[in-house]
TrEMBL record:
<feature type="signal peptide">
    <location>
        <begin position="1"/>
        <end position="26"/>
    </location>
</feature>
<keyword id="KW-0732">Signal</keyword>
<protein>
    <submittedName>
        <fullName>Uncharacterized protein</fullName>
    </submittedName>
</protein>
Length: 119
């Protein structure tokens, strides 16, 4: 009986630790804000037709991208893509930067995987 009484606090502590770890993992997997997901789906639908099927495919696509690359890397890639459209010296810096190109390539690979899984 004494052993069971001594194990209760240990079991309770382990339960709390496990729940905290699971919550942290879920948070990491869903670190994209809703507005970023909505913007992606909107752009994807514009490119793929504005139908019910495209909503489902584009929603699936951002979920796949989010599962492959962290949100900060996604932001870097999106900024690099946007800034590379700027003419002049500023745009050249983004088109020739190794970091920017690496982030864009990561995004393109994630989108290719999403294309395979969702479309």
């Amino acid at each position: 009986m004494k052993l069971a009484g001594q194990l209760r606090p240990i079991v309770a502590a382990l339960t709390v630790l496990t729940a905290t770890a699971c919550a942290a993992q879920a948070e990491e997997a869903n670190d994209y804000p809703t507005s970023a997901r909505a913007e992606y789906v909107y752009g994807c639908m514009k490119a793929n037709g504005e139908s019910r099927q495209s909503i489902e495919q584009c929603s699936c696509s951002i979920d796949v991208v989010a599962s492959i690359m962290p949100y900060q890397r996604y932001v870097t890639a999106e900024a690099a893509l946007s800034m590379s459209q700027v003419r002049g010296n500023l745009g050249v810096q983004f088109r020739t930067s190794e970091q920017a190109n690496s982030a864009v390539n990561d995004l393109r690979r994630a989108q290719a995987e999403a294309e395979v899984r969702c479309f």
